What we know:
Helices cover 49% and strands 21% of the residues. It has 14 helices and eight strands. It has helices at 3-14, 29-49, 53-60, 63-72, 78-86, 142-145, 154-160, 167-186, 200-222, 225-240, 243-249, 253-262, 267-270, 322-337; strands at residues 89-95, 99-106, 111-124, 127-141, 273-280, 288-294, 300-306, 313-318. Strand 3 (111-124) and strand 4 form a beta hairpin.
Amino acid sequence: MNYYKICVTVLAFGLAYWMGAAESNEKSEREMEYEINATLTEGELLERGATEPEVAVEALFEEDAKKKWKRFTEDFSTEQIRDFFCGAVILRGPVNQNSSLAGIYNVWWDAMLITESYEKTVDAGGESGKVRKVGDFAFVSGAVFRGENGMETDVAKKLASPGGSPSKIVLDLMSRTQKQFDALYGKRKTTILLDHSKNQDLSKKQIVACAGVRLKMTQLLLNDKVRYDDAWSMAKILRTGTRDTLDLVFPSEFGRMMSRAFCRLPKNIRADFEPYGYYPDKNGGKARIYVFINTTFPRLFAVASLGLGDESTLEWYDFYRSDELVKVFDMAEKEAGK
């Protein structure tokens, strides 16, 4: 067993504890309460945005933010906006009793919606209650957010043609984006949105390009009944398959290690994996790669590489551990180069 497999195995088994990760003891109960309130609103935006984005915006955006959203999203279809929210994770920014700031980042688009929300009193069914509503936002491409140079389609091309498993690409994007978000917002006390208007046109072009890639990938899968059925058959195996079943599907040594760790996930978590991407064999062969995301916890994703004989394999990772995982990939590449 090489060093790469040892490291990834340790990390894979470590993922079984992801649900039990405790908040820092330094946070007071009041601070944790504020974070929970903020996360409830942002979680509702993700959930409703993935099914009915217009309804989500109507319910959770202030009037000025609604108008700004309509102007920005006029170049995107409803299906694309749903897709953005479906695969997005939340990056926690500053939060207090009355306001909060968060980054809603979809690594598969490499795009981030940064929301500035404020608590409002609303009437519902004759009773008043409080909810945080988005008062302002910035929708930026990951490349511009990270301050990187390059053509507007560079990231889109990488995401469309990963040259194998896309895991390293998306984990690296997540790691670099998280670091930049933490650098800008992680230690801030105020929940005020920073100015992200620099290179706004380039940012929009990058988002449109990546959204187009995602739409093409989705259509490619939906229009190919054989691959569509194949992807959902694999999703069923991920959801309910036993360890023996997964070992038969992924017979490689690495695949067996990863599937054994995957089987340790709680049943209710496994039940939410759905197909999210399809990468056909560039050389016209029978090999195919499917990406699956967890619809309840998009921080978890899996990649099934099939049609490779005994090398058919499974990978699954937690985006919130991207920094650690990228280091493992880098060490493995160095070991392979020796």
